[in-house]
Amino acid sequence: MPARNARAIDPPAAADPGSLSVGVLPGVGPALAQALSRLGLERVQDLWFHLPLRYEDRTRVTSIADLRPGERAQVLGTVEAIERGFRYRPQLKIAIGDDSRQTLLLRFFHFHRAQAEQLKPGLRLLCYGEVRHGAQGLEMVHPQYQRVGDEGPVAMDERLSPIYPTADGLGQKRLAGVIDKALALLPPDASLELIPPELCAAHGLGSLRGALLYAHRPPPDAPLAELAGGRHPAQQRLAFEELLTQHLSLKRMRAAVRRRRAPTLDGDGQLRTVFVGRLPFELTGAQRRVAGEVLGDLAQARPMLRLVQGDVGSGKTAVAALAALAAVEAGWQVALMAPTELLAEQHLRSFRHWLEPLGVAVEWLAGKQQGKARAGAKARVAEGAPVVIGTHALMQEGVAFARLGLVIVDEQHRFGVQQRLALRDKGLEGELVPHQLVLTATPIPRTLAMSAYADLDVSSIDELPPGRTPVQTVAVTNARRAEVIARIQAACAQGRQAYWVCTLIEESEQLRAQAAEVAHAELSAALADYRVGLIHGRMKPKEKQTVMDAFKAGELAVLVATTVIEVGVDVPNASLMVIENTERLGLAQLHQLRGRVGRGAVASNCVLLYQPPLGQLARERLNVMRETCDGFRIAEKDLQLRGPGEVLGTRQTGQLAFRIADLSRDAHLLPAVQQVGEAMLSQQPRAAERLIERWIGGAARYAHA
Ligand code: ADP
Ligand code: MG
User: Are residues 120 and 167 in the same domain?
Assistant: First the structure.
């Protein structure tokens, strides 16, 4: 359909007010332009697409009797009492009452004396804030408030106030004012719209101009609940375009990589045959199928971009080893990267164990490695050492490879899209681009695979090795800790081994280590007949290894650990796991941790200790864990409970920091997004570029600043 390409949807640049600098707007001088630029807002169109995070309704007041905790509301009330706390703990508390004859407490931890002195019983205040449960009933902490006349009607806003993402030094009012001025320059739909009209019509997409105006300036009668949920047709129209843009941008990146050439890795299969023959197990059907897909890609002269997903324990490492051997057979180098040192070490051991008997040397490069060892390893890599394993510091620190043919990234659930792209860019320097294999332990729900991973082909290892027994899981309150310890004692008496996982969520590894030491002392005292080991992230790799070896050999009955054991640890005889503070952990992490048991033939158990009272979310998470061991179901549930940004570990940065779209809420849009995306890439590549420039361009420049 060549005619389609010919239709210009680009108006001449001069006629496009969106591409002008924000400086053309009245009242925007250099200082304001700079403040805007810090938010990534440089062009007029950046302001058009700087969408509200939420809306505040100050068009009406809510009576105190109707307030509900968790909601934001405007209240009109009369000051009944004021308290300023005492000298060493100043705290301003204002009780206000209204016609509903109920009282609301306004609480300020920071305040000026003058502020407190201006307030007297009998004054009327108009307040806006979030309602919550306090010790003395409903309260608002640090609400906005203003004095209003003592009698008569009070002037309220006529429409909902949009609240924008902003930064210090740029207030909402000022930002909203500039956005108003930018919106005055919005061109008619015909020149604003980048999605071809026939695709808009086919998918029922309404006016973009109308959607923007509505989202920025909803009318007084706008349905607030629908807007708050992001489900208004105007918001959905914008979400569609944003999802489409993300899809196009990943596809474009993929296309850029796929246009490059990669070495064809089609060795004679000798190493692979010996490797498979020496394995103490048969590969599962799923492992064979996925390995076949990977090897097929490697034999092409185009770079592979493939994600292998498989539940914890599904045997991804063996598939990765097969891919690595294919590269080595063909005379190319392989780099394997893991997000943590412990996981990288685990891979190092597996690979050395499997590959060195075949005469394939495995090099080690990690962040903590010192001077000489590091220099030596780097030199051997530069000379062509066949396999290199390390943390992602490996690629980030200018390691030169002689002939890098394959990069394997073990993503677990930690590498975000952003890092993946950064690593990919690294690989793009040479003449030939290495193939890329991404392994992920968190099964990726279909909706995410279609969007966040649109740049990758996906293979699934959807079968566990035979002989695994599902883990019986129970949730138990901390109050019954003594019973749980007695249960460990009983398990040890039967010759079983147990993990006790401390999950203190603290930034510092030191605090985590301390918490584990405390638990270690407690368990050592309670289980005097058994040896209890301890492992945490502050220990040297050698020390960790000694402890792991002792546990593996059965010399330790119990292993107290921080979440360092989350990945890679493999002791089939350990069939009981106790996890502390589970109310604070996410599903993906709980699933990873529990994946350490249930690896042998004995029936395994997992005890999830929690501190009541449980919030709604925590309760649901623990229920999911009790009900299923199926990683796919857990991942779907996780997505539902937490949202995709969190699931992918890219909440605030990177490609998935959507302005308006929400992958779980808007998943129903994805099939159409995909169709429109394919059509645009083949028929309107220039318009696709402009969409990316519109939605991601500014933000991307900002991120690189
Ligand atoms: P993951 O997919 O979580 O990375 P691993 O590759 O670490 O899983 O494999 C988990 C354990 O299962 C390892 O001990 C590995 O040797 C073993 N394993 C892998 N494949 C098979 C198989 N086909 N049969 C039996 N055990 C297997
Ligand atoms: Mg693994």
Answer: no
